[in-house]
């Protein structure tokens, strides 16, 4: 029987605040057997903190970190070292079996420089996902935990935005995709009040990006979500990691956070 996968992207914004129930939800999901969870994680705030401590300046263009060789060393240390192993340990605490792996290992994520008008340095986009590695880990009973560093055929490393990496992994597996972040959903502020969009289609999402309502780290999230829906991804939502059992509710089909759609009729596929 073909396995069904759900790619869960954990944002650095929320990693330190995730309740134990989040990790328990991931482990319970795997034990239930219908959907196989795969975690792709970020870690932007830790990278920024470490860069600040070492006195290395950092800048972002449309939510992507301009990455010099010096920045790249810190990015890899934070993502493939600290954060990846922290998530493995949290899942073990929840009595799960987790296997941490970076996109470099086994050529899991091959990458090329991101297509951008500005010079972004070593910022990459995924060109291929070696799904065999993921499927083998899942087959052996592990929850794969992926850090978003990519590699090219010459052995060059790339810093990949975690939202984009999660989208590429979900596309390669025809999975569901769930972005876990630090906000209750995508919102618009009117008269000092935040109004959450429970659903957002691609036309409206692009308008909100143009208007600057969707900004910063939310831009790669929304753009990756739309790309994923065009490429066999079944469903994409952005949900609050702090919401108790949020992941569980998403998997039960409950309306939670913001669901991204391709068109107003609510269809995910064109
Ligand atoms: N319209 C919007 N709705 C919700 N969040 C937004 C919006 N525009 C920008 N953001 C920002 O995007 C952030 C989430 O992106 P990011 O910081 O990259 O998180 P993560 O680490 O979870 O990927 C939110 O904390 C918020 O500050
Ligand atoms: C190219 C690029 O921007 N890479 C990101 C990778 C980490 C990330 O995406 O972390 P969040 O999910 O917490 O934002 C960065 O350097 O911050």
Automatic annotation (TrEMBL):
Extract the HAMAP family matched here. ArgB (MF_00082)
The UniProt annotation places substrate binding at 43-44, 65, 159
Outline the extent of the Aspartate/glutamate/uridylate kinase domain. 4-240
**Record-stated family:** Belongs to the acetylglutamate kinase family. ArgB subfamily.
Entries under InterPro entries matching the protein: AceGlu_kinase-like_sf, AcgluKinase_fam, ArgB, Asp/Glu/Uridylate_kinase
| Catalytic function, reaction form | N-acetyl-L-glutamate + ATP = N-acetyl-L-glutamyl 5-phosphate + ADP
Query: GO: which molecular function terms?
Result: acetylglutamate kinase activity; ATP binding
What keyword terms does UniProt attach to this protein? Amino-acid biosynthesis, Arginine biosynthesis, ATP-binding, Cytoplasm, Kinase, Nucleotide-binding, Transferase
Site feature Transition state stabilizer: at which residues? Answer: 9, 221
At the top level, the lineage of the source is: Bacteria
- Nucleotide-binding in keyword set: yes
List this protein's GO terms for biological process: L-arginine biosynthetic process via ornithine
Gene Ontology terms: cellular component: cytoplasm
EC number(s) of the enzyme? 2.7.2.8
Q: What pathway is this protein said to act in by its record?
A: Amino-acid biosynthesis; L-arginine biosynthesis; N(2)-acetyl-L-ornithine from L-glutamate: step 2/4
* Database matches in SUPFAM superfamilies: Carbamate kinase-like
Which one Pfam family would you cite for this protein?
A: AA_kinase
Localization = Cytoplasm
Described purpose of this protein according to its UniProt entry: Catalyzes the ATP-dependent phosphorylation of N-acetyl-L-glutamate.
Report the principal subcellular site.
Answer: cytoplasm
Any idea what this protein is called? Acetylglutamate kinase
């Amino acid at each position: 029987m073909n396995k069904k996968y759900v790619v869960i992207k954990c944002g650095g914004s929320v990693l330190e605040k995730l309740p134990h129930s989040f990790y328990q939800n991931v482990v319970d999901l795997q034990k239930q057997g219908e959907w196989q969870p795969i975690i792709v994680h970020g870690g932007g705030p830790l990278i920024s903190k470490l860069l600040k401590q070492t006195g290395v300046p950092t800048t972002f263009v449309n939510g992507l970190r301009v990455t010099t060789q010096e920045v790249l060393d810190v990015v890899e240390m934070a993502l493939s070292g600290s954060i990846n192993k922290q998530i493995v340990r949290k899942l073990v605490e929840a009595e799960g079996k987790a296997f941490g792996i970076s996109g470099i290992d086994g050529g899991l994520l091959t990458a090329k420089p991101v297509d951008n008008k500005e010079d972004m340095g070593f910022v990459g986009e995924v060109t291929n996902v070696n799904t065999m590695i993921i499927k083998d880990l899942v087959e052996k009973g592990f929850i794969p935990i992926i850090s978003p560093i990519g590699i090219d055929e010459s052995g060059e490393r790339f810093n990949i935005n975690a939202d984009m990496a999660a989208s590429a992994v979900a596309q390669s597996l025809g999975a569901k995709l769930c972005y876990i972040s630090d906000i209750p959903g995508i919102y618009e502020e009117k008269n000092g009040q935040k109004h959450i969009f429970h659903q957002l289609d691609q036309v409206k999402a692009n308008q909100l990006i143009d208007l600057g309502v969707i900004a910063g780290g939310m831009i790669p999230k929304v753009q990756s979500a739309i790309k994923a829906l065009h490429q066999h991804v079944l469903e994409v939502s952005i949900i609050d990691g702090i919401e108790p059992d949020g992941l569980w509710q998403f998997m039960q089909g409950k309306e939670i956070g913001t669901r991204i759609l391709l068109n107003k009729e609510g269809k995910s596929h064109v």
